[in-house]
Amino acid sequence: MSLYFRTGLAAVVELMVLFLIGGLAPFSEKSGKQSVSETLCGGFLIYYALLEITVLPLTMARVSLYVILCIWAAELAVLCASSVVLHYRGFFRELSVHAKRYRFAAVELALIIIAAAAAVVSVMLPSGRDISGTIAQMTTDIYHDSAGLINGFFGEVLTSVPTSGLLNRFHVSGEFYAVLFDIPCLTQMKIVQQLLTVILSFLISHRIFFRLTGGKRVPSAIATIMLAAVQFTSRTPYSSADQLLRTGWTGNGIMTGVLLPSVLLLLLALYDDPDRRQLHVLGMCAGIAAVSLSRTSIYLFPLALTAGIIPLVLSRREPGLIMHALLWMVIPVSAVVLCVLHPSVSLL
Amino acid sequence: MTGYSAYESGFSFLQKTVRLYEEPGVFLLIAACALILTIMFGMQSGRLFLAFPTIFFLMTVLNPFVLPVFIRNGSVSGEEYYRLLWLIPYGLIIAYGIISLAYRMKKGLPRNLVYAASLLLLAVTAVPSVKSMASVRPPADIFMTDEQLQMVCNYIIDETGYDDPMVAFDDAEFRLGAREYSAALKISHLFEDGRDTQDTASFSRSLTIWRPDFIVVRKESDAAGLLEGEGYPAVAYTDDYLVYVRK
């Protein structure tokens, strides 16, 4: 298989994985109302939250990259298999509303078990002192000279991207697909991840317009086209559009292109259905994912959420939503406090 | 990235950055108009979740009068303050404002005219961006790294034949640059771990733990004098750097 084919296949499989994982915590109660965009959005949030929960303790214990990838592969396999069982074999479909609650509890329990298992593994595995097995080194471990190849291909635009972006924990995901499909890690990041970020960003934006226009298909489609025109023309260093199109494979690019729009979509979904508990789980996942993506996102996520939750609480007159919002942002705010109190602590 | 820092510029930081980087100034004007259109013609959800947060940010974290307070408290880094501008969803507001206006028009010609005018306006704002994109050229040195770093990396790769040598650089720029230049090099964190090279005992301990194959230090570095005694003879040099190898 050619490199191009494997790269395309990696992108498709990544999307499928996000779709399957997103099926575990649907936005809407009725399965017929669940859109692909919202499923992918939910999948994205759960995926990166789990990645953070899994990889952070393992990297702190300096577990080798190989072991981290094996654990991550096992987690993904379990999640995808669960999703298939739950949604495509109709196992729970005929059960009562009470049973659906149990299903929700099962997902929560699974998340807790996975987090606990990752923590236990991180303590039990022998810690290596060789930095070659840790995240900072991951791009050099497996694929030699890919950096030079990619830099030569893209020229100035992409080589100007700060290399520190490669050190983020979320790039373990990139390494995972790079190994799985035998493609250079930087190809995965700069092509597949960039592609996925743009796709997810536009799908989520389309869904935002769909909800903002009260479910009208034509205006939401036109608005998405307008948005594309704006995104492709406003190349200013200070707009999220520029982040999306130039550095969509970095943590900040994913944050501005996917995470912040996801928060807006979650708030809109809550506006339509304030009692939907899955949305609160996804909100908490968004908070955890914010810690994984970049140092900036741990500041921007609570700000974006605060600005969004105020009108939601005022319009719905449900003060309880404030407590939920606080739960969403407890992890990133803790990270901010940690960074402020202990500037020497580097989370990335 | 900027050349402008909130530390130095204080109140005028936002104004300067906008003037410098928002090249198509009309783009901001369109965004402001779209915000007004959203408030006037948008649905309640649009006003609540697009217009309100934007005004909230403009009144709080992006307010030039509040900015010095944030910076004085050390809550926000002056160099990274511009990132707060990412919170404003320009694209969503512009697109939503336009369709809100269009759907207030009668179906047919008036509505289509709004779309056509909007697209024309966006196309006009795109001209400077397209021009700037056209001027992008690959640099002569595709790696965009220091020449001395390239010399050092080439030497080490030639000596080891892509055999995953572990290299410690005392220069932080070199640590990052080496990874961009050649993925064959494994970068040791020796100098991040044993930062204080003046403390001989501490540095020796770090050296025993990391044991890099090659160590590259600046000629004036304190580590340069220590390495010979630790079993690392100097084997090569450039104008500013010395290369040591493990015996």
Give a description of the structure.
- The complex is a heterodimer of chains A (348) and B (247).
- Chain A is mainly alpha-helical.
- Chain A is built from 16 helices and no strands.
- Mean pLDDT of chain A is 71; it is low at 118-167 and 344-348.
- Chain A is globular, with a radius of gyration of 20 Å.
- With 247 residues, chain B is of the alpha/beta class.
- Chain B has 2 domains: 6-134, no CATH class; 147-245.
- Chain B has helices spanning 6-9, 13-21, 25-41, 44-59, 67-73, 90-102, 109-134, 147-160, 172-181, 190-193, 200-210, 223-227, and strands at residues 166-169, 186-187, 214-218, 234-237, 241-245.
- Chain B has a 5-stranded mixed β-sheet with strand order 2-1-3-5-4.
- In chain B, helix 3 (25-41) crosses helix 4 (44-59), helix 3 (25-41) packs across helix 6 and helix 6 (90-102) runs antiparallel to helix 7 (109-134).
- The mean pLDDT of chain B is 77.
Quick gist of this model?
The complex is a heterodimer of chains A (about 350) and B (about 250). Chain A has about 350 residues and is mostly helical.
Outline of chain A, from the CA principal axes?
Answer: globular
Greatest interface by residues involved: A-B, 72 and 79 residues
The major β-sheet of chain A equals: none
Alpha plus pi helix count of chain A: 16
Number of helices of chain B: 12
**C-alpha Rg of chain A (nearest Å):** 20 Å
Total count of domains of chain B = 2
Task: Describe the secondary structure blueprint for this structure.
The complex is a heterodimer of chains A (348) and B (247).
Chain A: H1 3-22, H2 36-60, H3 65-88, H4 97-124, H5 138-141, H6 146-154, H7 156-159, H8 171-180, H9 185-212, H10 217-233, H11 240-247, H12 251-272, H13 277-293, H14 297-316, H15 320-328, H16 330-341
Helix pairs in contact in A: 1-2, 1-3, 1-9, 2-4, 2-9, 2-12, 2-13, 3-8, 8-9, 9-10, 9-12, 11-12, 12-13, 12-14, 13-14, 13-15, 13-16, 14-15, 14-16
Chain B: H1 6-9, H2 13-21, H3 25-41, H4 44-59, H5 67-73, H6 90-102, H7 109-134, H8 147-160, E1 166-169, H9 172-181, E2 186-187, H10 190-193, H11 200-210, E3 214-218, H12 223-227, E4 234-237, E5 241-245
Parallel strand pairs in B: 1-2, 1-3
Antiparallel strand pairs in B: 3-5, 4-5
Helix pairs in contact in B: 3-4, 3-6, 6-7
